[in-house]
Design a protein that fits this description.
Blueprint: H1 7-13, E1 35-36, E2 43-44, E3 47-48, E4 54-56, E5 64-70, H2 81-86, H3 96-99, E6 110-112, E7 118-120, E8 126-128, E9 135-136, E10 139-140, E11 146-152, H4 161-177, E12 186-188, H5 189-192, H6 206-217
Parallel strand pairs: 3-7, 5-11, 5-12, 6-11
Antiparallel strand pairs: 1-2, 4-8, 6-7, 9-10
The structure holds zinc ion.
Length: about 220
């Protein structure tokens, strides 16, 4: 059984991880110091919680970023239950809500918790199961070519400054590693599964996020 661990020690266990770029700068405080290795698809300096819920990208393409929110139980934070959910070890007796979802086999590449801590579940080179039935610019099955980031939260509660900071840092890492993820190819789950999904929800400040990305691009 894989146990969620932190930072470098866990990254060392990650399949295919390239140990070569591990260094003193990978400290993982609110996303600062995270280093995405494009060769392995794993991000050093973040927590690693390997999920079995992934498969191969059919074309190897990585050209879309999908922003989600999740909390388990809903609107409860820092429970560790999202990590258990993505590892298929949610205890259905712990909360009535869990009974309805425990059999789902899902994952995302990343989770950003309320304190800005980042956890990776699936290599970006692999296909995580976050988007479901979806379409972006006429192309279906967005999991094939997208990276999924879950923000711990709900549709209606404001996300934290630490989450925006980590999200922006992680997004820049992704765009550097996978340049096909342009600003126009960052969207919400609700954008690619309208009528079925509502996340990241109206509380997510797209203007703040996009302005920060544009500012960093100009530096
Ligand atoms: Zn979602």
């Amino acid at each position: 059984m894989a146990i969620c661990g932190d930072s470098i020690a866990a990254s060392d266990r990650a399949p295919g991880a390239d140990h070569g770029i591990l260094g003193a700068n990978t400290v993982g405080v609110e996303g600062i110091g995270m280093q995405l290795d494009p060769a392995s698809g794993w991000c050093h300096g973040v927590q690693v919680c390997p999920s079995p819920n992934f498969n191969e990208r059919p074309a190897g393409e990585i050209s879309l970023l999908v922003i989600h929110n999740i909390s388990l139980p809903p609107a409860q934070f820092a429970t560790g239950k999202v990590q258990e959910f993505f590892q298929n070890r949610l205890d259905v007796t712990e909360h009535p809500y869990f009974a309805g979802i425990a059999d789902l086999r899902v994952s995302a590449h990343f989770l950003i918790e309320r304190d800005g801590s980042v956890t990776q579940f699936v290599s970006c080179l692999e296909r995580a199961w976050h988007a479901g039935v979806s379409m972006f610019e006429g192309r279906e099955t967005c999991n094939d070519f997208s990276v999924g980031i879950e923000l711990e939260g709900t549709d209606d509660l404001p996300f934290t400054d630490a989450q925006y900071q980590a999200l922006i840092t992680l997004t820049r890492q992704l765009q550097t590693a996978f340049p096909a993820i342009t600003g126009a190819r960052i969207c919400g789950h609700s954008d690619i599964a309208p009528g079925r999904k509502t996340d990241p929800g109206p509380a997510f400040d797209w203007a703040r996020y996009r302005a920060a990305l544009a500012q960093e691009e100009g530096q």
